[in-house]
Amino acid sequence: MAVINKKKIVKFxxxxxxxxxxxxxxxxNDYFVSNNISPYxxxxxxxxxxxxxxxxxxxxxxxxxxxxxxxxxxxxxxxxLMGLGIVGIGTSVMHDSxxxxxTDNKAINNFLGGVLNLLGGYAxxxxxxxxxxxxxxxxxxxxxxxxxxxxxLRMTPEKQLKPFHKYQHIYAWGLYCLxxxxxxxAKDYKLIFRYSKNGLLQNQKLTLRRAVIExxxxxxxxxxxxxxxxxxxxxxxxxxxxxxxLAMHIVAGFSLAVIFQPAHVVQTSDYSMPDDDRKMENSxxxxxxxxxxxxxxxxKLVSWFIGGLNFQIEHHLFPHVCHVHYPKIAKIVxxxxxxxxxxxxxxxxxxxxxxxxxKMLKKLGNSEKL
Length: 370
Hints:
Largest sheet: 2 strands, parallel
Strand order of the largest sheet: 1-2
Number of helices: 15
Distance between the termini: 29 Å
Helix content: 55-70%
Structural class: mainly alpha
Number of strands: 4
Low-confidence stretches: none
Shape: globular
């Protein structure tokens, strides 16, 4: 477990206390062994990788070569398609790679995970926030930064309730649209300074100086190819380019938010907190199941496009398994959870998941406690 602050280390109950995790790991491992299947990517993943990368980079090439200037409808459509490409790359390619789930080759994982750097982000920040903080301390206020949206949104019952939160189920969707843009413009810099202070940046074998230099160079590269080149070569006025970029990030930000948040910020989430000695009642694995929900398990299109993240329970228990295997192992996880009398939450559709998230935002905005 990474050290965030000696006063904030959370200790989960031993896994032997319930036996659930050992059992589910044994059965999932047996599935791969008995079927002679690798837990990493396969042909399906290679095809998807090509499709997702093409969804972002092909429209960009069309824009900077000037072909998009034939029609403003086409021009803006290409930027919107790039927004979907960001989502597809982020959930399907970059996500698996930065979890080490794409392949057992570390160099390939780092290369594909580094595509995030070309999308305006910074892979080391993402690994800290998502892999370490979110996956270790899921839904624990003050530690899980995926549910920390600043003062504007209250996503846990432990966060201070403000009068304006009563409207968050209305305005949250607008904030989600700006999420990706905010991350690229300001959040990455805030994160590296915070992570350096907390010792997490050093765990990624980075000094603050190196991180600032790397991040700044990447931002310059991003500005150069996403803003300067389209203005110079697209054949459209600068303000059309600016609006196109804004549209791209609105699509990406909103889509990513409604993919990730309904898996954790819903009424079935446990939101358990450590006691005064920083000890949790449940084991880490049980905590994951109690604070996570699957959705739309039978929607193959949704599963394909969002990188299997509708199987969030499976992802949290087996983050090093490529997402193409989640539909199969979900049946195993559900069965073992039932054997151990652990609630296994599944929402039938993507729409029902978004609705459940909206209801939870309203509840959190109108009540001090659940």
